[in-house]
């Protein structure tokens, strides 16, 4: 008798930032049962792995979908963004922002860097030079940049630096500009993986959405977990989580389309892509 092979688990990408803790902690603790193999990293690294076919389903930069929409499908009603201050995507400067001549940008970010360039040029008429590097290394070496873009947990830790009194919260500024939420990250399915995995991808997407529902109902708990990690105190983290958007409903989709349209107008992408979603199959009762 031939032994039946166990299907390989779905490979899931996880952004290594505190803001997705409510999505992934339920999976990691098995509060929501799953058999994912999880790969964690900054958005830019996950973008690269996903593009190379090393993941089946992943959180990724929203601009990654815009660059390769023919390869991906969006997970329905799951995103990471804000409708107002995001607190963890910040331009910090030692001089007034209209006098900043060079901005340090982390290689870990794609969407936030694209949004910053777009916003400075289109909204403010500013075209500073950009350089790629690591802010913590520069500060430790005594070579502080004139201005830098901080994202994720690093932004939460560095946002009160006394030498950088001038700040621009990109989520807040986008909302003031457009009146819409800004979606920094989405979850995507590789089209090829969806075709190969069939019902197993359905189960994976449903599990991910169940984790979102579980985490969204327990946000104060994640503030305490974040405090234990030494990032910020619990009250500050409760404020942080309350300001985040985890949905990809009609208003969030409008914000995402507006971002893509502005990128296309600026020549940053060839055209604004249509939002195409992974279609869950109907569950048939036994």
From TrEMBL:
EC annotation from Swiss-Prot or TrEMBL: 4.2.1.151
Enzyme class: lyase
Any GO BP annotation: menaquinone biosynthetic process
Gene Ontology terms for molecular function: hydro-lyase activity
Pfam family, one: VitK2_biosynth
Cited InterPro entries: Menaquinone_biosynth (IPR003773), MqnA (IPR030868)
Keywords: Lyase, Menaquinone biosynthesis
Annotated pathway: Quinol/quinone metabolism; menaquinone biosynthesis
Catalytic reactions of this protein: chorismate = 3-[(1-carboxyvinyl)-oxy]benzoate + H2O
Family: Belongs to the MqnA/MqnD family. MqnA subfamily.
Role description: Catalyzes the dehydration of chorismate into 3-[(1-carboxyvinyl)oxy]benzoate, a step in the biosynthesis of menaquinone (MK, vitamin K2).
PANTHER family attached to this UniProt entry: CHORISMATE DEHYDRATASE (PTHR37690:SF1)
Name of the protein in question: Chorismate dehydratase
Source species: Desulfocurvibacter africanus PCS
Gene symbol of the encoding locus: mqnA
């Amino acid at each position: 008798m031939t032994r039946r092979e166990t299907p390989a688990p779905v490979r899931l990408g996880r952004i290594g930032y505190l803001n997705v803790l409510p999505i992934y902690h339920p999976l990691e603790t098995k509060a929501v049962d799953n058999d994912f193999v999880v790969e964690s990293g900054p958005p830019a690294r996950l973008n690269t792995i996903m593009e190379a076919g090393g993941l089946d389903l992943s959180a990724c930069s929203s601009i990654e979908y815009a660059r390769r929409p023919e390869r991906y499908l969006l997970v329905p009603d799951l995103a990471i963004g804000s409708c107002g201050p995001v607190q963890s995507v910040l331009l910090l400067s030692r001089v007034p922002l209209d006098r900043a001549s060079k901005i340090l940008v982390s290689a870990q970010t794609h969407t936030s860097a694209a949004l910053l360039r777009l916003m400075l040029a289109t909204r403010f008429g500013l075209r500073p030079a950009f350089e790629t590097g690591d802010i913590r290394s520069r500060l430790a070496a005594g070579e502080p940049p004139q201005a830098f873009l901080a994202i994720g947990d690093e932004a939460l830790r560095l946002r009160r630096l006394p030498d950088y009194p001038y700040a621009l919260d990109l989520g807040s500024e986008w909302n003031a500009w457009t009146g819409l939420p800004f979606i920094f990250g989405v979850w995507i399915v590789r089209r090829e993986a969806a075709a190969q995995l069939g019902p197993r991808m359905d189960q994976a997407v449903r599990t991910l959405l169940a984790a979102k529902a579980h985490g969204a109902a327990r946000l104060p708990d994640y503030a305490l977990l974040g405090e234990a990690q030494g990032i910020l105190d619990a009250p500050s983290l409760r404020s942080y989580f309350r300001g985040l958007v985890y949905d990809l409903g009609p208003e969030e989709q409008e914000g995402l389309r507006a971002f893509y349209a502005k990128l296309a107008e600026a020549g940053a992408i060839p055209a604004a892509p249509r939002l195409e979603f992974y279609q869950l199959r109907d569950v048939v009762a036994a």
